[in-house]
């Protein structure tokens, strides 16, 4: 009899366990989701930050450098299961400020800023921080507690190209500077240019111009053509220093079309289009100093997700540039994705890439 009671008790225990397990698998979906969504969310527990909405607020989206920078941003956000919305302001700082306010009001999870000024953005950035929306800026003149600002080592980029220019022309000759005020990186590059002028007294600036527009390369080309007419003789101009790749493109095209390829161009920044021009033996653009634009986008996103994760991040992150000259490159055309095979230090930066970030990337991204 005792044996029978024990047996019945064991059977009842098993039946109860199976019933409870069945109830667990049939757990109702959370409000606003389906059972299928719950299952997929459970499968993504490795990344608690999946599904974040990220806003990229840009002062200007122009040229292949910006295009590759955006690619880097999108690539890293998507690897982490998020979605990014890109909003350029076409150079209009008031519009950029309005775009920032709109992103805050839309309650995005994180904000990336590309360029901009303190006057236009700091009020909006402070509002975002107050609302617990993390912000990471690139080359923006922003000084708000809690915001991480990325910048290229602009002084080093300018120095590298200017020193190569000075060496190539023997420390003397006339040069043209193409530069524009109103951008934080440009102001830092100008400081290096002033130091260069103080160092090389026999190198004379005979012309200086530059403006950022939706047709910067084309406008620069037209202005350079006018300067070449003003200085028509071989030897009148030894070189051109361009503080932005859009300037270098326009200047190089004008010089090449005028048949004045004794004038060499030294630029800053690098994209696939830029690299193609530098590799062209008929192009006057022979060297540039840059950080991989895709890396800039990736690194900026990594620091934003660190903030979303609750990690401490530095106030300022400096990105190390690489000097690229034609004499370092093969004759066959390559892309910036292949540049690391020929130029040490280019691309594939691990900066800001924590172990937990790597682990959080979606299986498809890996």
From TrEMBL:
<keyword id="KW-0732">Signal</keyword>
<dbReference type="InterPro" id="IPR050555">
    <property type="entry name" value="Bact_Solute-Bind_Prot2"/>
</dbReference>
<dbReference type="InterPro" id="IPR028082">
    <property type="entry name" value="Peripla_BP_I"/>
</dbReference>
<dbReference type="Pfam" id="PF13407">
    <property type="entry name" value="Peripla_BP_4"/>
</dbReference>
<comment type="similarity">
    <text>Belongs to the bacterial solute-binding protein 2 family.</text>
</comment>
<dbReference type="InterPro" id="IPR025997">
    <property type="entry name" value="SBP_2_dom"/>
</dbReference>
<dbReference type="GO" id="GO:0030288">
    <property type="term" value="C:outer membrane-bounded periplasmic space"/>
</dbReference>
<protein>
    <submittedName>
        <fullName>Ribose ABC transporter ribose-binding protein</fullName>
    </submittedName>
</protein>
<dbReference type="GO" id="GO:0030246">
    <property type="term" value="F:carbohydrate binding"/>
</dbReference>
<feature type="domain" description="Periplasmic binding protein">
    <location>
        <begin position="54"/>
        <end position="311"/>
    </location>
</feature>
<feature type="signal peptide">
    <location>
        <begin position="1"/>
        <end position="21"/>
    </location>
</feature>
